[in-house]
Amino acid sequence: MKKPIGVALLGLGTVGGGTYRILENRKKEIEQRLGVPVEVKKVLVRDVNKARTTAVPQALLTDKPAGIMEDQEIAIVVELMGGIEPAFTYIKEALKAGKSVVTANKDLMALHGGELLALAESNGVDLEFEASVAGGIPIIRPLKVCLAGNRMEELKGIINGTTNFILTKMTQEGSDFAEVLKEAQDLGYAEADPTSDVEGLDAARKLAILASIAFNTRVALDKVYVEGITKISARDIEYAREMGYTIKLLGIAKEQEGQVEARVHPAMIPSYHPLAAVNDAFNAIFVRGDAVGDAMFYGRGAGDLPTGSAVVGDIIDAARNYTRQNQGRISCTCYDEKPVKSFGKIVCRYYLRLRVSDKPGVLAAIAGVLGDHEVSIQTVIQKEHVGKDAEIVLVTHKVKEENLQKALQILEAMDIVEKINNVIRVEQD
Amino acid sequence: MKKPIGVALLGLGTVGGGTYRILENRKKEIEQRLGVPVEVKKVLVRDVNKARTTAVPQALLTDKPAGIMEDQEIAIVVELMGGIEPAFTYIKEALKAGKSVVTANKDLMALHGGELLALAESNGVDLEFEASVAGGIPIIRPLKVCLAGNRMEELKGIINGTTNFILTKMTQEGSDFAEVLKEAQDLGYAEADPTSDVEGLDAARKLAILASIAFNTRVALDKVYVEGITKISARDIEYAREMGYTIKLLGIAKEQEGQVEARVHPAMIPSYHPLAAVNDAFNAIFVRGDAVGDAMFYGRGAGDLPTGSAVVGDIIDAARNYTRQNQGRISCTCYDEKPVKSFGKIVCRYYLRLRVSDKPGVLAAIAGVLGDHEVSIQTVIQKEHVGKDAEIVLVTHKVKEENLQKALQILEAMDIVEKINNVIRVEQD
């Protein structure tokens, strides 16, 4: 028997457990594929005596990271702890010890991906992170390898399962945000503190990673504009449906004239767009390249086995590089430096829902203000009456974000405008 | 400047032209990515003096394959001629000469993929063929690498753009096959002789390749059951719609109890299935793995630039292996041998549309014959009258194909059955 490739798992939570089970279940096939077995030698946990759902031999458990870093039999360290520290320190130690690293850690890759990839490169080892974005969906390797001949024009992703579950329910049942959030929490689809998901922060981390790969330039997390879904109402969804749109929380990145834009916010997309049919907790990433045209990658964005699937794919790839003494084969692909556009400069279409006084000339006045800021109107719906007020819904043609914001400020100050109920960007070519 | 990696293109048709243009347009970025430039050194054509749509320097054109095989500066040979010969011979010569090969040739890979991959392996070079299936959609590398930890359960693909265009038009416009085929031919979506597309042969080749990769066993083309879309009528599509189904030409492969099944035929799928929304000439491959769950890959399955995108992705990958002296990194993944189930043994649900005498007891008699063959009925629709005949539409529960066929033979011989208008398989879990 050939000498097995030793693997250490850091963390045995949801994804750690899934990864361990896949490696065990597929032991034989992985050996057939690689020619050598892959063997989990150590599993780092905080408490070696804690009861666990995944049956791991007690002898593998350790609470001492140093023993892993020093172990010459361990070629691949798999970080599945999440969060910044101590994961960041452990990964750096593993890379410096000449071990390849596989990670599912989006927080870390979004914040320190550049540094870690450089460290992997200088140590001649692999740092693979397919599982850090969109769970089991193959997207990082397809972008880095299969689509490498393309100049990417845009990437649009449904990359947070919790918010997609909530928006799908709201759309199907006509219910409001708070109600569905409660349901999602009861079902385990949303956490007790849902902030990171519903405010778009989780999606922003994944978008920073994806945009960096798609446009071959490091897109820093703090350059990503972020807006969550808490203000979306059943009413907005109903208006969207009437006009042929579906509301999704999208991570959007584009490159135009050498500048990159990156933003996470709820958006209306045409209901015929492939992303509009991505429902429940599913994720999907839609890309447009100058050669490939439109392509989309769809699947489960989270969960023990889906995310474990991506982790194990990376482990097998890193193991192959190890057996062929060819580690560090594909490293950082941010070979370029492109500025990130300030958010005010993006160009978009907008849906505005306004409560206005129900009297003659109101629409003309509003249209006048918009026109003064180069906002031209494509669609107007006015039908609902709320006491002596009316509700006006407008969809604009393409306009610069900063122009729209200036117009909104003026509208907000006008007597005839009772309230700007909502503003949602419309993503349509 | 570093010494460029020399590439030869065999063929300068649609895909050859697209590939050349992408390599030229993205010259700088490819060099940034690889650290060395990729340079087209020779282009094999039949007639060096023919006028061409893709502007290639005359000095690159040659009609002598031997000059390419002998050229030590050429590391990668890209076969884009299509068909079996002389492509088969040229690829073998290139592999034997120690050159890596990239090909978009589905006919060849479906028939001789095993032999060619073995030859690549024994010569320590790469044979990459992402472009041979589903044009620009990354699917072969995702299956071979990203999803390598999965036991694949099933793969269902819309892998022929012509038939998907035709079925989409038939569905949207209520028109019949012959009419839409004509339109597709006028638009250039279907060839003058459309046999290979509409009879499912093109899809069968791609399915043989995909099934071999998904299930890690060589699935021979002649083991794939093939049935085309020529018998699908506007009436079938309308009945399907009423019952919540969409008709697509699918390539289906599954593994159950160590046996593989592989078949291409029109199928009804639930309209909520992600494949049901794949319209026009788009392709998509849906897979289900034991870890990843459901995933789908969507994009353009043909065309100069989409297919060229996949070819260039492979060229960059092969070039990277070449610069790192690591050719032959991923070779054949058919490490197993699994029998292909005979078609009579597959289990499926079926839609039957029958013209029957319009008199009492007919349905009971038909149900009796089906029951005798263990075919149980899920849905019955009876509403249309054609003179003194009636039309009955049945959807069965799951049943073995051979049982259904026996029942159909008996039904066909019955006096009360005027005609079995159509039988379409229903793919639903």
List keywords for this structure.
homodimer, 429 residues, Rossmann fold, Dihydrodipicolinate Reductase, domain 2, Alpha-Beta Plaits, eleven-stranded mixed sheet, 14 helices, 17 strands, 27% strand, elongated
Radius of gyration from the alpha-carbon trace of chain A, in angstroms: 24 Å
Please give the alpha-carbon distance between the first and last residues of chain A. Answer: 58 Å
CATH superfamily of the largest domain in chain A: Dihydrodipicolinate Reductase, domain 2
Number of self-contained structural domains of chain A: 3
| Biggest interface, CB < 8 A | A-B, 59 and 59 residues
Helix content of chain A: 25-40%
CATH architecture of the largest domain in chain A: 2-Layer Sandwich
The major beta sheet of chain A can be summarized as:
11 strands, mixed
Class computed from helices, strands and strand pairing of chain A? alpha/beta
Oligomer: homodimer
What is the fold named in CATH at topology level of the largest domain in chain A? Dihydrodipicolinate Reductase, domain 2
Identify the CATH class of the largest domain in chain A.
Alpha Beta
Ranges of chain A where pLDDT stays below 50 over 5 or more residues in a row are none
**What sort of overall outline of chain A do the alpha carbons produce when their principal axes are compared?**
elongated
- Average pLDDT score of chain A: 96
Question: What is the overall number of helices of chain A?
Answer: 14
Report the strand count of chain A: 17
